[in-house]
Each structure stands twice: as structure tokens, then as C-alpha cells.
């Protein structure tokens, strides 16, 4: 058994198959993949990694299994899946996942080939565990897959408290001990025991509060968009594949971006935190549905049209269209009066938070500071936006240089 001091859960005891997996290259690689990607440019202490998070998920999974009375081979499978649940993440976590998915067809939880080969596969087979079955648990399959990836999963419990701790933002603080103790299975579904509507609401509320302040903060979104654009240019090189990029860590990606002539300029701006500024920051109700639903190719065409209208280079315009607002936690199930109910059917808070989430949604158009006014006016024309919806960071007097650091 190995005991590891953790900043969130104090001491974590790792044993069995999880301890054997700990030093495999696939798990150790996660030491070099930041949990929150570009959020560190907003909150300098947000440098925690997927490795720390994986330890936390394993720890909470072990506590949940003990509470549920699950042991033996079934527990080994879940603990292995908890330790391995993030090995499929590419560099900077979710920041370039959509890009690599377009080329490879794989998201971070598609880990079948990663678990079947090399040292991870050997460790699993040495412990009489089927790599394919563990990959299924990582993807949330089956009764126990809900513990690893579901509405009440331990992944969510750990990242909320860990992200809150490392950013210094208290909104993600939840009672993981109570959440784990109140878990139970009813007809194969993972639910919270009677009397825990508020416990379920705490997950929902924490995610809703952390979203605008941390996960979709405008500086994090702009830097993410710039990093994604640089990675797109990198993939245009004949000697770099999306599969290779997907297996890089943060440092390897930055080196590749810096040394590629097509992506070097954006990589340099990222390194210096010389970021693009907001030319447009439009609310959900002000953006036509056709724009909100635009696919990647349509977005690129719109960027080119905005650039041509503004008289700037194509590279000086980034259109950032977030996905439609969603709230997966609202489908969590809670026992109420002896009956299993969805949280969204029981809690009036869900409706209010859905409204808040839609109100927080923003479409962004980003450009270098000197061009924001021109790009903003061009974007309004091309996208069919009202002129009074435009928000230029320069016009609003927000910081435009690294020396004027301000969030």
C-alpha cells in the first residue's frame, strides 16, 4: 500500500491494482496535463493536474464502494477505472478535445486501445481484469460505471472541490463525505437516499456557480480559442497527426506549437499572455439560432467573411460559439417518499439555474486589440447582431497589455 498526501483529501491510501497502475507511463503522463487548461491565466494557482484529480477520484470511489458494501473483483474493476478515467485526455484537458475528435473520432473517455496495450494492459491482466471491461466503466457503462461517469459520479465530486481549492473560488465547495455516504443503488440506478434533495442540489449549484467565474471566464475562453486555433495550424503540417497531438502533454504541445512556423505566432502570444480581446460578447437571445448551431466549417467561413468585411487578416478573427446550455446534474436521481425521482422534477432550483445558465451564455468574437472596433462592427453585420450588443474590451477600457494584468 502507498500513502499519498493530497491537498484536498489529506491522506490517500492506494493499494491493489490501483497502486500497480500508479507508476505506468499513461498515469504518470497526467502529471503534465493541467486540470483546468488555460484557466491558470486567470487564476495563477490553478496549476493542479489530472494526476492529482485521478488520485482524488480513486479515493472517493474507494469510499463509495466501502459504503455500498462492494468488494472483491467488482471493487477492483471500479478502482482501476477511477484511476484510469482520465488517461485519454489530450494536452490542456478539454481545451483542444473537439479539434482532435474531428480528426480521430475519439473523446477523452474512449480509452479502449490505451488500456489494452503496453504497461496498463499488462497490469490489468496481471490482476485478472479485462481491459475492455475497465474501458467500459470509464465510459460509464453498466451499474458501476455510474460511479465513474454519471450524474452522481465521484469524478464530478472531486473536480468541483479541487478546482475550488486551487483557484481560491469557494463556490465549488461541496460535502463529498455526505454525498458518498448517501449513495445507493435502486433497481441498478445510482441514487441518493431519502432526504437528500438538498445534497443533490449542492452539486448542481456548485457547478452552476463555478461555470461563469472559472470554467467559462472570458480570459480562459479567449486563451482556449487561441490555443485551439494554433493547434489547428499545427495539424496542417504534414508530419503531425491528431493522434500524436492527442497523446502529447501540455509541455510537448507548447514546444510543437512554438517550433511550427504556422502556429508560432499564436504560441508566442499565449506564452506572453498577449491575448486577443473581445470584439463581440453577445447574449444568447441576441444571437440567431443559425449561428448558435453553426458547425466548424460554417464558423470558419464566417470568420473569413468577418475578416474580409473588417479589412483584417483571417488570422485576426476568432469566432467562439459555445455549445447549447446543458445541465446534466439535473437528471440525478433522489429517493423522495420512497420513490426514485429525477432532481429536475423535484427541485424548483433547477428551473432557476437553467435560466441563469442561459443568461450567462455568450458568443465571443476575438481580435488583436487595435482591430476590435472594426472586427466588432463587421461581426455585427455578418452575424446579424444588433450594434448595441457589441462589447469591445478596448472600448470598455479593460486591460490590453500584460503589464495591465486584470481579470
How would you summarize this macromolecular structure in one to three sentences?
The protein is mainly α.
Describe the secondary structure blueprint for this structure.
Layout: E1 2-6, E2 10-14, H1 16-22, H2 25-28, H3 50-68, H4 72-84, H5 97-104, H6 112-116, H7 118-126, H8 131-138, H9 142-148, H10 154-167, H11 176-181, E3 183-186, E4 189-192, H12 197-215, H13 218-235, H14 242-246, H15 250-259, H16 264-272, E5 277-283, H17 289-292, H18 296-310, E6 318-320, E7 333-336, E8 339-342, H19 343-346, H20 348-360, E9 362-367, H21 372-383
Antiparallel strand pairs: 1-2, 3-4, 5-9, 6-9, 7-8
Record keyword descriptors for this entry.
two-stranded antiparallel ribbon, 2 domains, 51% helix, Hypothetical protein af1432, three-stranded antiparallel β-sheet, mainly alpha, disordered C terminus, 407 residues
Give a structural overview:
- This protein is mainly α.
- It has 2 domains: 215 residues, Hypothetical protein af1432, CATH 1.10.3210; 97 residues.
- Helices cover 51% and strands 10% of the residues.
- The chain contains 21 helices and 9 strands.
- Strands 5-9-6 form a 3-stranded antiparallel β-sheet, with helices on both faces.
- Helix 4 crosses helix 8, helix 13 packs antiparallel against helix 16 and helix 18 packs across helix 21.
- The longest helix is centred in the N-terminal third of the chain and has 19 residues.
| Proportion of residues in β-strands | 5-15%
Please state the overall shape, judged from the principal axes of the Cα atoms: globular
Spatial strand arrangement across the major sheet: 5-9-6
Over all CA atoms, what is the radius of gyration?
22 Å
Helix content estimate:
40-55%
Find the CATH superfamily of the largest domain: Hypothetical protein af1432
SSE string: EEHHHHHHHHHHHEEHHHHHEHHEEEHHEH
Second-tier CATH architecture of the largest domain: Orthogonal Bundle
Amino acid at each position: 500500500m502507498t500513502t499519498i498526501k493530497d491537498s484536498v483529501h489529506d491522506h490517500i491510501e492506494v493499494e491493489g491494482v490501483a497502486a500497480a497502475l500508479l507508476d505506468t507511463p499513461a498515469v504518470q503522463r497526467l502529471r503534465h496535463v493541467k486540470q483546468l487548461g488555460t484557466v491558470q491565466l486567470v487564476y495563477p494557482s490553478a496549476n493542479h493536474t489530472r494526476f492529482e484529480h485521478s488520485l482524488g477520484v480513486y479515493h472517493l470511489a474507494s469510499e463509495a464502494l466501502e459504503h455500498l458494501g462492494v468488494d472483491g473483483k467488482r471493487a477492483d474493476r471500479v478502482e482501476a477505472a477511477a484511476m484510469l478515467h482520465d488517461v485519454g485526455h489530450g494536452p490542456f484537458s478539454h481545451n483542444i478535445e473537439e479539434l482532435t475528435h474531428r480528426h480521430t473520432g475519439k473523446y477523452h473517455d474512449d480509452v479502449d486501445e490505451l488500456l489494452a496495450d503496453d504497461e496498463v494492459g499488462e497490469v490489468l491482466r496481471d490482476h485478472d481484469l479485462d481491459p475492455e471491461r475497465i474501458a467500459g466503466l470509464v465510459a460509464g457503462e453498466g451499474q458501476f460505471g455510474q460511479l465513474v461517469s454519471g450524474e452522481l459520479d465521484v469524478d464530478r465530486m472531486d473536480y468541483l472541490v479541487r478546482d475550488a481549492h486551487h483557484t481560491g473560488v469557494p463556490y465549488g465547495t461541496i460535502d463529498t463525505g455526505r454525498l458518498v455516504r448517501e449513495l445507493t443503488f435502486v433497481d441498478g440506478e445510482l441514487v441518493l437516499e431519502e432526504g437528500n434533495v438538498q445534497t443533490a442540489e449542492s452539486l448542481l449549484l456548485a457547478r452552476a456557480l463555478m461555470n461563469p467565474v472559472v470554467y467559462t471566464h472570458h480570459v480562459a475562453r479567449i486563451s482556449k480559442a487561441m490555443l485551439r486555433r494554433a493547434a489547428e495550424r499545427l495539424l496542417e503540417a504534414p508530419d503531425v497527426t491528431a493522434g500524436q497531438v492527442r497523446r502529447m502533454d501540455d509541455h510537448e504541445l507548447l514546444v510543437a506549437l512554438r517550433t511550427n512556423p504556422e502556429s508560432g505566432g499564436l504560441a508566442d502570444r499565449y506564452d506572453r499572455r498577449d491575448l486577443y480581446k473581445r470584439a463581440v460578447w453577445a447574449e444568447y437571445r441576441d444571437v440567431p439560432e443559425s449561428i448558435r448551431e453553426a458547425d466548424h466549417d460554417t464558423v470558419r467561413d464566417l470568420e473569413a467573411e468577418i475578416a474580409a468585411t473588417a479589412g483584417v487578416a483571417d488570422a485576426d478573427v476568432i469566432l467562439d460559439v459555445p455549445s447549447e446550455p446543458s445541465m446534466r446534474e439535473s437528471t440525478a436521481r433522489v429517493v423522495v417518499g420512497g420513490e426514485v425521482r429525477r432532481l429536475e422534477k423535484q427541485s424548483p432550483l433547477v428551473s432557476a439555474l437553467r435560466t441563469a445558465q442561459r443568461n450567462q451564455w455568450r458568443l465571443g468574437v476575438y481580435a488583436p486589440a487595435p482591430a476590435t472596433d472594426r472586427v466588432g462592427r463587421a461581426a455585427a453585420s455578418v452575424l446579424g447582431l444588433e450594434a448595441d450588443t457589441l462589447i469591445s474590451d478596448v472600448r470598455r477600457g479593460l486591460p490590453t497589455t500584460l503589464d495591465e494584468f486584470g481579470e
